[in-house]
Amino acid sequence: MAALLGNAPHVRTIAAQSLKGLTSPDNGLVSPIHFATAYVRDESYAYPTGHVYGRSDNPTLQQAETLLCAMEGGDDAMLFGSGMSAAMAVVMAFDQPTHVLASSQMYYGLRRWLQAIGRFGHTFAFCDTSDLGEVEKALAARHPGLVWIETPSNPAWSITDISAVCTLAHDVGAIVCVDSTIATPVLTRPLAHGADLVMHSATKYLNGHSDINAGALVAATQDALWARIRDWRAEQGIALGTVEAWLLARSMRTLHLRVSAQSQTAALLAGRLQGHPAVARVLYPGLPSHPGHVVAARQMSGGFGGMLSIQVKGGQAKALQVARKTSLWKCATSLGGFESLIEHRATMEGADAQCADDLLRLSVGLEDPEDLLRDLETALSCK
Known about the structure:
Helix content is 37%, strand content 15%. By secondary structure, the protein is α/β, with parallel strands linked by helices. The protein has 2 domains: 2-99 and 169-252, Aspartate Aminotransferase, domain 2 (3-Layer(aba) Sandwich); 256-381, Aspartate Aminotransferase, domain 1, CATH 3.90.1150.10.
C-alpha cells in the first residue's frame, strides 16, 4: 500500500498529498465516496478490482488504509469500527491458546476484556512495561505469544522503550503490538522501533473531530497472523463503514498540524501547572521530572503529545470540584479531539480503577493556551 503514495520523506507531506489522483475519475483533489457493497465479475468470473463484498472492504476504506499505512511506514493496514474491535481482532486471530503479556497501565476497557480472555482459551499477565527488568522477569516466567504495549499509557502517560521491549519479546518468539493512539505517527512510528503491529483508537487523534468511532491496525509484514486478522474482520463484519472511512481520511490530512499544536499547548500547560499551589503533581512525559522523559525524548519526535494529567491537592472531592468548575474544559469521556476535555478518571474506571482518586485527565484541544490555563487556574482556585 505504501508504494501507492511514493516515498514522501515526512508524515506531514504524506498526509497532505493523501488522496490526490488515487481513484477520482475526474482527477479531483478529493476522492468520491464509494457506496457499492457488491461488485461485478468479469468474463472469466473473477473480480478484476479485487473487491468482492462490502463486508470485507471497498475502495473508500482502502484509500484511508493506504494513507495510514504510508504514515506509519507499514506493509498493510486495516480499519475497524472501533479501537476495541481492532485490539480484540489481534488476540482472536491467534489460532491456538496464547499467553498475552500487557502493560499494567493501559486503557481500562481493554484491560477488563483481557482479564476475561480465559473463556477463549488464552491467558494473560500484566507488568510494568516501562521497567525493562520487570519485562524480563515476566517473559522468563512464561513465554507469551503476544506482548501488548501502550505508550504513552493512559492516564499517567508512562513511557515504554519500544525498541528494548521488542528485542526482549522477539528473543522468546513473541509478537509485539503497540497501542500508539496517543503518540500517533506524527510523534512515534513503532514499526521503525521493531514493533510487529501498531494499533490506534482512530476515534481519537487520527480522526480528531469527535464525530466517528474507528480503530486501526498497521502491520510491518503481511504474515499468517495478519491474514487471520483480515479473515476475522470479514467474518465478524467489523470493518469501518464507508462514510466513516472517508471522514477519517479527511481528518488525517490535518493530523500533523493538530497534533503539533496540541503537543505545544500541553507542554506549556504542564510547565505552568507544575508550580500551582493547588496541584500536587503534573504527569506529562515532556517534563524532565517525568520518569519516562529520557526514553520519550529518544523515541518521540516533534513533541510529547496532547495528553497530561494533574493530581489535585485535596483528594477526590477537590478534583471533582475542579472538573465541575471549568468552563472551556468540557467534562467528557474521550480524547484527541479539537475541543479540550477534562475527566476524573477514577470515577470513569470504577471500582478497579488503576489511577489515583485525585487525578484529572486533560485532553488538550485547539483553543488558545492562555485561555485554557486561565480556565484551569480559576477552577483550581475555587473554594
